[in-house]
Design a protein that fits this description.
single chain, Aspartate Aminotransferase, domain 2, Aspartate Aminotransferase, domain 1, binds FE2/S2 (inorganic) cluster, 2 domains, about 425 residues, binds pyridoxal-5'-phosphate, globular, 12 strands
Length: about 425
């Protein structure tokens, strides 16, 4: 067997239908590369391996052409100009470049930054670093449904505010912030607007003009592209400047040096185009699956609480707290389903989700939450099996819980005076 046959066989392997593995319902953590995307990437790992910066021969020109095409695909997906797209290693790096880059470049104008308490860690940790450098950050509260209050947002703007950063679609609870309204407020106050759209592209229409974004972070692996590739949109009119964070050969118009990973870039471009093409059909199918999952759980399990607005939310996400059950125990009991409690990025820390806490949820309910991420390859049979498993395991865990027993007996747990230990 020669190598091209091996590649052909591997790329035809079914993606997720594998009875020996758990049902994958963690599409907000990451997605598999769509086979159509993979097919377009493969030649750039082998035959067309040139360096896009090699200007003197055909190997370089072929790579450059592929990079240009992908840049156009990503630009088209967000209604931007290809010259406004900077390749990075992912949304984390894009957000670092956007916030540190803008903060450093415009520090003469002011030192104040606005963001939300429910942002992704990529934003929150970058803001913490900027605080250590002397910048001041306002972390705005959100309402019970996860949405920011626009009046509070506008009130947080100060004369020295240089940039605000808002998550388009929340990775834990899937809520969609009112981006156009936020963009309008920020433009009126001449404050730069950075948008983390890592979880938005392919799920909701993303248009940098409609929401007046100045910078936007994107990621390949959240939309059926490869991991390790992302992009930062940086507006040209009116021009936005960011100070480079990675220095070297001056690639990407000096904003981000490093040899371009052609195959990854081709994958991100193809994934972005496909994400927009399939947005409506994906959303329709996935929405039905999500409703089926929710209905199934609600019919079979009492005392469940939905986290985050259902109205302003992408259909790909369901985040539910199962009262009287500890989230980690539930996840351990649910070995046949791959889901997250809290966010995928922080579930190693075993702390209750800061996003759910920001919605005003108690520690207990935050601890008992499960995030279901439904995606392009989820089937109805997988949803039905999940409902069965959840109903069975939650029931079993509650049987072991003295608090559940008391609740069943009608005792109001809030009225109990617990003895101090
Ligand atoms: C909303 C959001 N922003 C940023 C990131 C980071 O993206 P990447 O993995 O491409 O660095 C993620 C992924 O966890 C995310 O969900
Ligand atoms: S879910 Fe139990 S420690 Fe967080």
């Amino acid at each position: 067997m020669n190598s091209s046959q091996i590649i052909e066989l591997d790329s035809k392997k079914p993606l997720l239908i594998d009875p020996d593995r758990p049902i994958y319902l963690d599409y907000q953590a990451t997605t598999p590369v769509d086979p159509q995307v993979l097919e377009q990437m493969l030649p750039y790992l082998t035959h067309d391996f040139g360096n896009a910066a090699s200007r003197s021969h055909a190997y370089g020109w072929t790579a450059e052409k592929a990079v240009d095409k992908a840049r156009q695909q990503v630009a088209d997906a967000i209604h931007a100009d290809p010259r406004e797209v900077v390749w990075t290693s992912g949304a984390t790096e894009s957000t670092n470049l956007a916030l540190k880059g803008a903060a450093h470049f415009y520090s003469g104008k002011g030192k104040h930054i606005i963001t939300l308490r429910t942002e992704h860690k990529a934003t929150l940790d970058t803001c913490r670093q900027l605080e250590r450098e002397g910048f001041e950050v306002t972390y705005l509260e959100v309402q019970e449904d996860g949405l920011v209050d626009l009046k509070a947002f506008e009130a947080a703007i100060r004369p020295d505010t240089i940039v605000a950063s808002v998550l388009f679609v929340n990775n834990e609870i899937g809520v969609i912030q009112p981006m156009a309204e936020i963009g309008r407020i920020l433009r009126a106050h001449k404050v730069l607007f950075h948008v983390d759209a890592a979880q938005a592209l392919g799920k909701v229409p993303v248009d940098v003009e409609a929401i007046q974004a100045d910078m936007m972070s994107l990621s390949g692996h959240k939309m059926y592209g490869p991991k390790g590739i992302g992009a930062l949109y940086v507006r040209r009119k009116p021009r936005v400047r960011v100070e480079a964070q990675v220095h070297g050969g001056g690639h990407e118009r000096g904003m981000r040096s490093g040899t371009l990973p052609t195959h990854q870039i081709v994958g991100m471009g193809a994934a972005a185009e496909l994400a927009v093409q399939l947005m409506d059909s994906d959303a329709q199918r996935i929405g039905k699956l999500r409703d089926r999952l929710l209905k199934g759980i609600q019919e079979r399990v009492e005392e469940t609480y939905i986290n985050g607005s259902m109205e302003h939310r992408v259909p790909h996400n369901l985040n539910i707290s199962f009262a009287f059950v500890e989230g980690e125990s539930l996840i351990m009991a649910l070995k046949e389903i791959a889901v997250s409690s809290g966010s995928a990025c922080t579930s190693a820390s075993l702390e209750p989700s800061y996003v759910l806490r920001a919605l005003g949820k108690s520690d207990e309910l935050a601890h008992s939450s499960i995030r279901f991420g439904i995606g392009r390859f989820t089937t109805e049979a997988e949803i039905d099996a999940t409902i069965e498993l959840i109903a069975g395991k939650v029931g079993k865990l509650r049987e072991l819980s003295p608090l559940w027993e008391m609740h069943q007996e009608g005792i109001d747990l809030n009225s109990i005076q617990w003895a101090a230990h």
